[in-house]
Amino acid sequence: MLKKLYYLDSEESYMLYKWIGETGAEHYVKIVYNSIEYSDMQLICEAYHLMKEGLYFD
C-alpha cells in the first residue's frame, strides 16, 4: 500500500491524505461516503418527481 503521498511545492511537502484510525475505520469512512452518495441520488429523484408531478414538466 501507499506509505506516503506528498505534493511537492517549492521545497515544502503537503500530505494529500490523513490516517483515520485503527483497523476497521475504513468501514466507517465507507459508510459516510455511501450515505452522502445515496442522499445525492435521493435528492435527484425528489427533484425529478417535483418537476414531473408538481410543475407538469415532461
From TrEMBL:
Its EC number is 1.1.1.44. Pathway: Carbohydrate degradation; pentose phosphate pathway; D-ribulose 5-phosphate from D-glucose 6-phosphate (oxidative stage): step 3/3. Keywords: Gluconate utilization, Oxidoreductase, Pentose shunt. One of its GO terms (biological process) is D-gluconate metabolic process. The keyword Calcium does not apply. Residues 27-56 form the 6-phosphogluconate dehydrogenase C-terminal domain. Coiled coil: none annotated. GO terms for molecular function: phosphogluconate dehydrogenase (decarboxylating) activity. Belongs to the 6-phosphogluconate dehydrogenase family. This is phosphogluconate dehydrogenase (NADP(+)-dependent, decarboxylating). It comes from Rhizophagus irregularis (strain DAOM 181602 / DAOM 197198 / MUCL 43194) (Arbuscular mycorrhizal fungus).
